[in-house]
């Protein structure tokens, strides 16, 4: 997409309040452009025939609406479409099913507005973006009721750093490979560990494998 124009967004969700909330958030952000909203799979297909957006925000919910099968079909019919799933679903099994069909962006509906906008931007660029709670589930950590998406989500540059770290490179080697300073690499590493709530390289490797950063 052209980085100078707003990110065109279509919203697909069965819940009225969620649709209106996302619509308001998108319209308030100058970097985004609201295109349309739909409430079921049929109207979504019609909307995509009229105009393919930069980002489709879709709720993964009941089997008779935006089910895994529906999302998979949409992705197959629109291979260049960037899809951001926003859901209440917190089970590792369902999250892994969504990631398994090629979805690289997944948020929970209790994420804050800043994280939603960040996810839209990353999605438009084709980058991976998972909220903190999703990362916790993938790392098989327990989520308490008071937890929110406090761990944040990794940026494109941090993904580069993660891949290099998991491959076994030291900070100095990474700095040379990415043409950045040693201290920048060390700072990124500290931020990554803090965001993901991890303490050692094994957990980082688990995260990279489970989110598809490393095969």
Question: Explain this structure to me?
Answer:
The protein is globular. It has two domains: 7-138, 3-Layer(aba) Sandwich (Rossmann fold), CATH 3.40.50.2300; 156-210, Arc Repressor Mutant, subunit A (Orthogonal Bundle), CATH 1.10.10. A six-stranded parallel β-sheet has the order 2-1-3-4-5-6. It has ten helices and six strands; from the N terminus they run βαβαβαβαβαβααααα. By secondary structure, it is an alpha/beta fold. Helix 4 (92-100) links the parallel strand 4 (82-87) and strand 5 (105-108). The model is unreliable at 142-151 (pLDDT under 50).
How much is the average pLDDT?
84
CATH architectural label of the largest domain: 3-Layer(aba) Sandwich
Total domain count: 2
What are the secondary-structure elements, in order, as H or E?
EHEHEHEHEHEHHHHH
Tally of individual helices: 10
How many strands, which pairing sense, and closed or not: the largest β-sheet? Answer: 6 strands, parallel
Overall strand count: 6
Q: What level of helicity do the residues show? A: 40-55%
- The parts where pLDDT drops under 50 for at least 5 residues are 142-151
Outline: globular
CATH class membership of the largest domain: Alpha Beta
For the record, what is the CATH homologous superfamily label of the largest domain? Response regulator
- Which strands sit side by side, in order, in the main sheet? 2-1-3-4-5-6
Helix/strand structural class: alpha/beta
Q: What percent of residues are in strands?
A: 5-15%
Q: How large is the radius of gyration?
A: 18 Å
The third-level CATH topology of the largest domain is: Rossmann fold
Taking the alpha carbons of the first and last residues, their distance comes to 27 Å
């Amino acid at each position: 997409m052209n980085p100078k124009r707003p990110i065109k967004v279509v919203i697909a969700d069965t819940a009225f309040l969620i649709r209106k909330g996302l619509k308001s958030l998108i319209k308030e952000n100058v970097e985004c452009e609201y295109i349309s909203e739909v409430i079921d799979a049929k109207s979504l297909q019609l909307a995509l025939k009229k105009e393919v957006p930069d980002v489709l925000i879709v709720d993964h919910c009941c089997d008779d609406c935006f089910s895994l099968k529906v999302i998979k079909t949409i992705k197959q019919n629109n291979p260049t479409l960037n899809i951001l799933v926003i859901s209440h679903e917190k089970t590792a099994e369902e999250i892994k099913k969504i990631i398994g069909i090629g979805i690289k962006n997944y948020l929970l509906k209790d994420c804050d507005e800043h994280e939603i906008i960040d996810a839209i931007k990353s999605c438009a660029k084709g980058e991976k973006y998972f909220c903190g709670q999703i990362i916790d589930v993938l790392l098989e950590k327990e989520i308490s009721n008071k937890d929110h998406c406090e761990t944040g989500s990794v940026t494109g540059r941090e993904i580069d750093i993660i891949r290099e770290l998991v491959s076994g490179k030291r900070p100095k080697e990474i700095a040379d490979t990415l043409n950045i300073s040693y201290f920048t690499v060390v700072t990124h590493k500290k931020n990554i560990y803090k965001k993901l709530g991890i303490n050692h390289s094994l957990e980082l490797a688990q995260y990279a494998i489970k989110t598809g950063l490393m095969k």
